[in-house]
Amino acid sequence: MANYRPAPGDFPQWRADHAQFNPTTLPLVQSRTHILAYALAGLQRQVREVLHTLVGFRMPATYDTLHALLVGAGKTYPKAQGLDMALAELEDHGLIGWDREANRYDAHPIVRGVVWQLTDATDQQAVYNALAAHFEPMAVPDWLNVEALADLTPAIERYHTLVGLGRYDEAFVLFRDRLGDATFYRLAAHRERIVWLEGLFPDGVEKLPALADAGAQADALSALAQSYEFSGQPGRAMPLYRRHNEIVEHQRDKRNQRIGLVNLGGNIRCFLHHRFFGVIDPPITCQYRQFTAQTSTFRRPGDGESVLCKNYRMLPSRSGAARQRDLSPGCRRLAAGPGVGP
Predict the structure, then answer these.
(1) Contact, 296 vs 239, CB < 8 A?
(2) Residue 46: exposure state from Cβ atoms within 10 A (0-12, 13-18, ≥19)
(3) CATH 1.10.10.10: does it fit domain 42-119?
């Protein structure tokens, strides 16, 4: 367009003269390159470092976090003024957005993906190492007190960086200890869990996760299968449940064999009902199974074992509003009746 001889730089005129042009038919890489070529042109090295760091985050980055990572002796900028100017320039180029109320910065997913792909491997590793070190000492609330994914930001960011560094065993321990219960029982954040857990399968979910311990492999398979099922994808969950069951059977783990068979049976019931009737009847939906788990989990004193007991319809008789107030954010979302995909 810039070199269009009849009207250089005049996009409306160029578009009118090329009405047949459809940018969506371009190969994806070519489209992305065209979109970002102008925006990235002319950025100074330090500004690019800010952008590379920001797109390394899984969630919006607060100004305080960027300041801690990029400002100081031996870092990208010696003073905060340099970071402020870089953020303003990136925002002016349309590469990042600024949530002024929360004072957080984020990039569009396409921008994030393309910029990260254009970042060389050495710089990617440097960003991951810096993020891992920054978030390692930060605590997250007890899972019973979690109200939103933002409450888990330090653990989410550290998990993401550990996966990026190929430290899969550490990443799964972090997921199990600090993210699993909160995202399953409190938030029903299954779409997010799927993205996170699939990162443990660098060779694809058809293969085993890249974990050294067979028990951890089984746990990762089960966790991903549950999130597939409870996000309305029981067909994708089934082979993972089966592989989980094969591992625990080989280990002669009777307790997890029972759990695995129950999970597989419920998933098959959900899958077949949807397959043959086209609609999932509420009493046996994947959401209902998840809802039952969320509304009925408690801890036995002494052994800390998670137990499932009475389901929602068996709770003490109270008004619907009163019962809703007792539910976790994830339960409230499920109680509102979300749709189920194929």
Answers:
(1) no
(2) middle
(3) yes
Global model pTM greater than 0.90: no
Residues 12-43 have pLDDT tens digits of: 666 666 666 555 454 545 555 556 766 676 78
Tokens standing for residue 82: 């340099």
Q: What is the DSSP letter of 15?
A: H
Q: What is the DSSP letter of 7?
A: S
CA separation for the pair 239, 93 (Å, rounded):
46
In whole angstroms, give the CA distance from residue 103 to residue 122.
Answer: 29
Q: Taking a C-beta distance cutoff of 8 angstroms, is the pair 193, 155 a contact?
A: no
Q: How many whole angstroms separate alpha carbon 86 and alpha carbon 84?
A: 5
Digit-coded pLDDT (tens) for 302-313: 333 333 322 222
For the range 134-141, what are the long-range contacts, defined as Cβ-Cβ under 8 Å and sequence gap of 24 or more? 134/65, 134/68, 134/69, 135/161, 140/178, 140/182
- If residue 41 lies in a helix (H) or strand (E), which one and from where to where? none
Distances in whole angstroms, Cα of residue 281 to Cα of each of 205, 217, 272, 288, 312: 29, 32, 11, 10, 16
What torsion, rounded to 10 degrees, do the Cα atoms 239, 229, 181, 296 define? -120
Nearest to 94 by CA among 115, 114, 83, 108: 108
Residue by residue, DSSP assigns 223-258 as HHHHHHHHTT-HHHHHHHHHHHHHHHHHTT-HHHHH
Cβ-contact 86, 92 below 8 angstroms? no
Interatomic CA distance for residues 308 and 295, integer angstroms = 9
Yes or no: say if 287 and 234 are a contact pair by the CB < 8 Å rule: no
Q: Where are the domains of the chain?
A: 42-119, 136-298+307-314
Cβ atoms 226, 184 nearer than 8 A: yes
Alpha-carbon span 46 to 143, nearest angstrom? 38
Q: Give me the residues paired with residue 307 across strands.
A: 298
